[in-house]
UniProtKB/TrEMBL annotation:
InterPro entries linked: DUF4442, HotDog_dom_sf
Taxonomic superkingdom: Bacteria
Gene3D superfamilies per record: Hotdog Thioesterase
The protein, known as: DUF4442 domain-containing protein
SUPFAM superfamilies: Thioesterase/thiol ester dehydrase-isomerase (SSF54637)
Length: 150
């Protein structure tokens, strides 16, 4: 099974109901970069009128998951991608829609080689969350693994 650009968003929305609940928009998904957008929605605001920290966490984690699916979609028949841990730093007040941009921090070929050698690779995905004016409102690192089936 492989994951093409058109199906990544649909696949995540089907597997992760919070993606649908938050109405996340898939702007760009490649093996090198994933960009998702959280529209401004009053139902998901915090006490300051901006996106709730939980909604921004979900946006960033979903962007990391999108890049993992795109980069390793051809490995899904033999391994399950799982988030191992995540750390987020909230930098500035977010208002309005926010966008999360995720990038792999290890070469995909190196990760697949580790899987090929019988390992269970772990790899970080860095995510920057930005307001419409480009200011970084948060930074997240999600460590993922490819858990071999069986």
């Amino acid at each position: 099974m492989t994951v093409d650009s058109a199906s990544t968003g649909d696949m995540l929305a089907a597997a992760v109901p919070m993606v649908r609940t938050l109405n996340l928009e898939f702007i760009e998904v490649t093996p090198e970069r994933a960009v998702l957008r959280l529209p401004d929605q009053p139902d998901f605001h915090n006490h300051l009128g901006g996106p709730h920290a939980g909604a921004m966490f979900t946006l960033a984690e979903s962007a990391s998951g999108a890049i993992v699916l795109k980069a390793f979609g051809d490995q899904l028949s033999r391994a399950v991608p799982l988030a191992v841990r995540a750390e987020i730093d909230y930098k500035k007040l977010a208002r309005g829609p926010v966008t999360a941009t995720a990038t792999l921090r290890r070469p995909a070929a190196e990760i697949v080689a580790e899987l090929d050698a019988g390992g269970r690779p772990e790899f970080p995905v860095a995510v920057a969350v930005r307001r419409e004016d480009g200011a970084v409102t948060g930074e997240m690192t999600v460590v993922w693994t490819l858990r071999p089936n069986g």
